[in-house]
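Appendix B. One record, verbatim.
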Amino acid sequence: MSRSLLILRPIDGARRTAKHAEQMGLSVIIDPLFEIDPMDWTPPPAAQFDALLLTSANAVSQAGKRLEEYRELPVLAVGEITATAALQAGLNVVKTGDRGVRELLAALPDGQYQRLLRLTGKHHIDYTPPEHDMTLCHVYRSRALPLGKKAQEALRQGHVISLYSPRAGKILSSEMDRLGLDRSVNDVVALSPNVAEAVGSGWKTVQAAEWPNDDSLLSLASALCQL
């Protein structure tokens, strides 16, 4: 019997993942565990930086009109979705990483783009290599929500859960305990090993995608949904 893919990420990302999953023939259940809210922020002068670092499309959509101040800066983007959002916003994307921020920065030539401005969420994975000077600006926050009714029902039945951040893994784990839900009937597909670690133990299986993107994650989910 086929099972559904439960998508808990914020609604815009959830819709993108759901569209991709449905094109693969998967049944999906969307019930976001987070809402994205913009934060008030003051943009530092663009002249202070060599490049703009973007690790999420949310940073583009939530930064508002102040993002226009960085149109002339080269943009380093983590992931094709982030790069596409930046290009659509009129930014100058010069390099797109297909893994994480660590790998993207490590692939740069020595001495290139040393002064970086990173626009990010309030809750983010911090990483600053010693050869870079990193300035962080929080332009959005991911507000956690209680586990929704659709998600609760799906988790009682046993489905496949997609997780995209360590914070999502920790919150889901906490909500499962709070509601007394059985982890052992659900499989988890995680965007990366650190996400898989954050969701904890007791699940039917926990598997990390080979690459941190929807294609890799959904290939895992597709196999599990058919079991």
